[in-house]
Amino acid sequence: MSVTARSYPAPAAILELLKPVTWFPPMWAFGCGVAASGVPLAGHWGIALAGILLAGPLVCATSQAVNDWYDREVDAINEPDRPIPSGRIPGTWGFSIALVWTALSLLVALSLGRWVFVAGSVGLALAWAYSAPPLRLKRNGWWGNLACGLCYEGLAWVTGAAVMLGGALPPAPTLILAALYSLGAHGIMTLNDFKSVTGDRLMGIRSLPAMLGPGRAARVACWVMALPQVVVIGLLLRWGAPIQAAIVVLLLAGQLVMMQRFLAAPTARAIWYSGFGVPLFVFGMLASAFAVRGLAA
Predict the structure, then answer these.
(1) What is the torsion angle, in degrees rounded to the nearest 10, for the CA atoms of residue 275, residue 280, residue 285 and residue 290?
(2) What is the per-residue pLDDT across 271-292, written as a single tens digit (0 to 9) for each?
């Protein structure tokens, strides 16, 4: 039994490697794209579910497998209980799983249309570039967080709209909103780095908290999250959606209040802000998506 356990990963270990808890952000962004498309779900449930499968259990899961494979030496120090360093996923199985999930993602994306395939391909390329050498974008918080924001929010949003539009390129308002919320997500990604400043500095990972210090990094994260939402509010007013603009204003006001508490103790309260402030950001995404339904129809 011990030889078998070391030779083949258990299904539970594979599921842990793929990290289902991380699938929610791209699935939510995909849902925003569906809402922005203006296409009724009736009669399109099958293709919408296929897109959700692509955004979360395939593309996002691929990114998690790739990241854990290339972080296996770091994780052996910081988190030895993870599937790869613990030996529950032995040998090169982690790399093989990442390759298989990449191939499955591409096949599903191809079946959903040209622009879905393009978006999925870019997302997968960013997932590999984030973790794998020679680029390994995660070594720099500016580029790494941008790659994550684009992959988790913008590309998933565009994919959701493209799926519902029969694989066509979504209209400009949808693309603009996806880009703005991707930039805002850069700040959200920074929140995840406060817990590992010491380890990042030791391993040469230049996350923003490691480079700038917790205080300055927290201020950068707050500005990066807030400014795109201000632009969104202006655009919604210009596009004739004052109700949705007012909703985003209220949600942003709630974030600003919580940001003050976060800025007072960034390292201690980064997880707290992720739990309570970030949901207001993503609800604003959905409100904005509904605002452009008429423009996309």
Answers:
(1) 130
(2) 999 999 999 999 999 999 999 9
Domain that holds residue 138: 1-170
Shared domain for 208 and 160, answered yes or no, is: no
H or E, element range at 118: helix 114-131
Three-state DSSP class for residue 103: helix
CA distance 97 to 209: 31
* DSSP letters spanning 125-184: HHHHHHHSTTT-GGGBHHHHHHHHHIIIIIHHHHHHHHHHTTTPPPPHHHHHHHHHHHHH
pLDDT, tens only, 42-84? 888 998 999 999 999 999 999 999 999 998 987 887 788 999 9
For CA atoms 235, 283, 257, 196, the dihedral sign is negative
Residues 6+ apart with CB under 8 A from 122: 150, 155
Our count of domains for the chain comes to: 2
- The secondary structure of residue 20, as a DSSP letter, is G
Kindly report the CATH number assigned to the domain that includes residue 230: 1.20.120
Q: 161: how many CB neighbours lie within 10 A of its CB?
A: 32
The radius of gyration of the chain from alpha carbons, rounded to an integer in Å, stands at: 19
pTM: 0.88
Helix (H, G, I), strand (E, B) or coil at 90: coil
Coil, strand or helix: which one is 71?
coil
